[in-house]
Amino acid sequence: MLADLLSECFATDLEETWERERTATPVRAFAVQLKMRVDRFHNSWVGSHGSVREWFIQFVQYYNFQRPHQALDGRTPVEEATN
Q: Is residue 79 predicted with pLDDT exceeding 90?
């Protein structure tokens, strides 16, 4: 009796599941939007590989030596490493 009830319940849920319209999940939509933003950034960079390298070096300097980090109680990574 219990087995019959469970199989009937499962069959009903399975049929309802297949009948529902399938749409993109919020996670999928977010991933697509993020990829579009990354692609736009990559395609909009104006400059040479040397300018990208220089920008990156300056960013790393800022990130490690000037920018206070919340996880480090407002200290920079360099301050954390030297203490």
A: yes
